[in-house]
């Protein structure tokens, strides 16, 4: 809209005032001025409505409105001349009168001719827009129905099983919050992406917690954007410690899928030709060299870069800097989090609320976190919060440092145990999902809490917006492995946890954490290695580590060791040998290949060790004579691991793990057998072998596991029969054989499992009938099965009172491919 359009209302107002004066003073212009005054009185509301609507017009209507603005300006100038004209100058007054008559006719023609046409055009536009909105609403409803249809819920062990397809749980959580103050940013970024062919790489930048990622996800979900790119949108989180090769491979594969329907074996010369429109969103980018490697200059592909850093124009064609929220939007977001409403509720202390909001400095994350911490609190708590926020003076010029000091209020109000658990979350890498099972292993040993209390604590932290549960907590029932549930956390909240854990000197911290990935152990640790480190949690984040890369350190009080790395070789730190109080080890490889682990024998002296979590590593064959027992080890979890087991291995697992109660092996795809010595581990209560596609059989003397309560053999396609001796498992309560597609039958012996309460046998197409012995399963309460075999179980309901048969719907879920 032209600049004159914005002033048209003011011009008309001043002109009207002058014409009233002229009507009284100049008799020659009285009639024309009166007619012009009436016309402008009718036109003024319309001009003001156009002025304040904020709607852009097409070129034709814009030109007409510009002409009207010029006519009004001419009328204004004419009125000034009439006002200054002397009464005795009759000739001049006559000329001015004729000019005013001509101006009045011109405005009347606009009112009587063009204006009705404008109205008809507006009515047409409204109808079209309403139709489009209803179409979008119908499309959104249809997508919601599809998403709800894909949310398969089936009771399992007194809980519920959730299967999410094509839904980002983070997005679901964000949809429950208001995206206030984002419409302007969303419009500007959309214009850069959709309307400017010359802008290939665009950016969104702003401080941590300002809503950059939320805005990027809004752009990704926008109907116009999805339609423009035909849903060809890839969203990647880069982070401060990225695996650049893996990210490049994902982008390459994505672009190949867009152009060649998944054929990745192509050269760049083929990909560099015109490609169907595609959008790559790179979130949380920290370094220019990393960004430069992730930008693929392919015709048709655009890249949206989200970062705290404003990268140079040599890399970004254009960038939008996300502004902090204005007072009105900040109050709205804060009230939504604190009261569940979009405005200050009646009866609340408006001044107090605005004072607290003002201290959040317009930062969305601070408003949500502090608002959640004050939810349902007393007025005294609010006043105390306001006073403490007022004292949170910045220790430097960084807004982010000031934010950490202010957000610390939300942590101080937690109970000591919940506060400790929140601070523990800072021990894990940024932008990585934390498996719930890992937290249970750590907090059970470190905080003396059981699994049920872990869920309560996570629920409280989630309610206060201090973390996000990636899957519904109902999935974690008593028969379900918790590694299917994860926790995620905003990087600013992780920074807050590290900030609060680092207030003491490095040797006296309770948590010794490497905040970012480094090539080796931090120099600060090396400089202070002459004194023992008193941390209870030690977290290391590196690349490849060899024996010479470690130096001598003492951790006399360490109970938890978290080793995160990304490489194909890793030498376990020698100082583990002297960690006499070590109770939990978490070893996770974030690299693209399975890592070879060296120096595994260092665990031999960890006699107090109670849990092991190994992920994406290769475990070598352990010689019997050099392997020391781990008498207190209770839980072992092996995910995506290569396990070197020989068919006639002499390794006695009952000797190494005499007190083992829980063994989990997931996606250990090369494991074809279990050593028979596992059956001599008399203490084993839970055995979970899932997605192990090479597993062909279980040991012959499986029935010796007399204390086994839960047996999960999920998605093992080569398994053809259950082990002999299963009738001796008198304590077995739950068995899961779902997706064992080649399992022929349930053994007749299963009738001997007198304590069995639940059977999950979904997607076992080879099982067509049931053994007669199932009629003796008097404790059986729930069966999950397919429709083909369900009628057999329904017939059993007469002989087994209380039995509930649940028929599973087919669910084709490939979400695991994104992990």
Automatic annotation (TrEMBL):
Record family assignment: Belongs to the disease resistance NB-LRR family.
Keyword Ribonucleoprotein appears in the UniProt entry: no
Keywords annotated in UniProt: Leucine-rich repeat, Plant defense, Repeat
Protein name: RPW8 domain-containing protein
InterPro entries named among the record's database cross-references: Apaf_helical (IPR042197), LRR_dom_sf (IPR032675), NB-ARC (IPR002182), P-loop_NTPase (IPR027417), Powdery_mildew-R_dom (IPR008808), WH-like_DNA-bd_sf (IPR036388)
Keyword S-adenosyl-L-methionine: no
Segments forming domain RPW8: 1-149
A molecular function GO annotation: ADP binding
GO biological process, one term: defense response
């Amino acid at each position: 809209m032209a600049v004159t359009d914005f002033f048209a209302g003011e011009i008309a107002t001043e002109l009207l005032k002058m014409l009233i004066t002229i009507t009284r003073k100049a008799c020659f212009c009285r009639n024309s001025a009166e007619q012009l005054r009436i016309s402008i009185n009718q036109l003024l509301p319309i001009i003001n409505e156009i002025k304040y609507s904020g709607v852009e017009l097409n070129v034709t209507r814009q030109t007409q409105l510009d002409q009207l603005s010029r006519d009004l300006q001419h009328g204004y100038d004419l009125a000034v001349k009439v006002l200054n004209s002397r009464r005795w100058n009759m000739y001049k007054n006559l000329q001015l009168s004729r000019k005013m008559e001509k101006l009045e006719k011109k405005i009347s023609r606009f009112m009587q001719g063009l204006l009705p046409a404008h109205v008809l055009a507006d009515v047409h536009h409204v109808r079209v827009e309403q139709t489009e909105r209803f179409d979008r609403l119908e499309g959104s409803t249809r997508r919601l129905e599809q998403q709800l249809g894909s949310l398969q819920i089936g009771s399992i062990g007194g809980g519920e099983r959730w299967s999410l397809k094509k839904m980002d749980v983070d997005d679901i959580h964000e949809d429950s919050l208001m995206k206030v103050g984002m419409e302007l940013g969303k419009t500007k970024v959309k214009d850069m992406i959709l309307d400017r062919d010359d802008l290939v790489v665009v950016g969104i930048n702003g401080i941590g917690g300002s809503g950059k990622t939320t805005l990027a996800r809004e752009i990704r979900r926008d109907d116009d954007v999805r339609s423009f790119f035909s849903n060809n949108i890839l969203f990647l989180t880069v982070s401060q410690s990225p695996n650049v090769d893996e990210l490049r491979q994902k982008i390459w594969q994505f672009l190949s899928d867009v152009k060649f329907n998944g054929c990745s074996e192509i050269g760049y010369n083929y990909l560099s030709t015109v490609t169907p429109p595609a959008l790559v969103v790179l979130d949380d980018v920290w370094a220019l060299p990393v960004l430069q490697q992730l930008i693929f200059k392919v015709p048709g592909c655009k890249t949206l870069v989200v970062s705290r850093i404003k990268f140079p124009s040599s890399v970004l064609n254009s960038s939008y800097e996300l502004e902090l929220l204005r007072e009105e939007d900040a109050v709205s977001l804060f009230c939504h989090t604190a009261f569940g409403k979009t405005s200050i509720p009646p009866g609340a202390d408006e001044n107090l609320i605005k004072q607290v909001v003002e201290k959040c400095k317009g930062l969305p994350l601070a408003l949500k976190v502090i608002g959640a911490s004050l939810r349902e609190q007393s007025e005294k708590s609010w006043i105390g919060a306001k006073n403490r926020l007022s004292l949170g003076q910045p220790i430097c010029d960084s807004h982010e440092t000031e934010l950490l000091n202010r957000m610390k209020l939300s942590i101080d109000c937690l109970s000591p145990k919940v506060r400790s658990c929140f601070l523990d979350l800072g021990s894990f890498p940024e932008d990585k999902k934390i498996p719930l099972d890992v937290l249970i292993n750590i907090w059970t040993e470190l905080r003396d809490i059981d699994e049920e209390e872990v869920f309560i604590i996570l629920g409280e932290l989630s309610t206060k917006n201090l973390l996000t549960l990636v899957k519904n907590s109902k999935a974690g029932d008593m028969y379900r492995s918790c590694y299917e549930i994860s926790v995620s956390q905003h990087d600013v909240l992780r920074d807050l946890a590290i900030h609060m854990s680092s207030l003491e000197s490095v040797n006296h911290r309770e948590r010794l954490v490497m905040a970012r990935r480094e090539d080796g152990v931090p120099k600060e640790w090396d400089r202070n290695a002459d004194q023992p480190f008193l941390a209870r949690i030690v977290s290391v984040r590196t690349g490849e580590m060899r024996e010479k890369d470690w130096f001598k350190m003492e951790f006399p009080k360490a109970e938890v060791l978290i080793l995160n790395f990304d490489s194909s070789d890793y030498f376990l730190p020698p100082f583990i040998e002297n960690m006499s109080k070590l109770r939990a080890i978490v070893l996770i490889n974030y690299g693209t290949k399975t890592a070879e682990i060296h120096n595994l024998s260092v665990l031999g002296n960890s006699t107090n060790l109670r849990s092991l979590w190994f992920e994406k590593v290769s475990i070598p064959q352990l010689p019997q004579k050099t392997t020391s027992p781990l008498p207190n080890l209770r839980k072992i979890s092996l995910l995506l691991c290569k396990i070197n087991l020989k068919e006639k291995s002499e390794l006695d697992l009952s000797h190494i793990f005499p007190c083992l109660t829980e063994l989990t092996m997931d996606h250990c795809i090369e494991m074809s057998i279990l050593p028979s010595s596992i059956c001599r581990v008399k203490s084993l209560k839970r055995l979970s072998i899932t997605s192990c596609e090479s597993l062909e059989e279980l040991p012959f003397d499986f029935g010796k596991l007399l204390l086994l309560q839960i047996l999960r053999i999920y998605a093992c396609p080569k398994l053809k029969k259950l082990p002999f001796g299963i009738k001796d498992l008198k304590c077995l309560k739950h068995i899961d054989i779902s997706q064992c597609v080649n399992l022929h039958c349930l053994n007749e012996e299963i009738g001997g499992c007198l304590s069995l309460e639940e059977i999950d046998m979904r997607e076992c197409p080879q099982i067509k009938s049931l053994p007669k012995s199932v009629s003796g399963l008097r404790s059986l309460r729930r069966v999950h099965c397919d429709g083909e075999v369900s009628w057999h179980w329904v017939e059993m309901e007469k002989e087994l009172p209380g039995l509930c048969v649940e028929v599973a719907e087919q669910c084709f879920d490939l979400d695991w491919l994104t992990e």
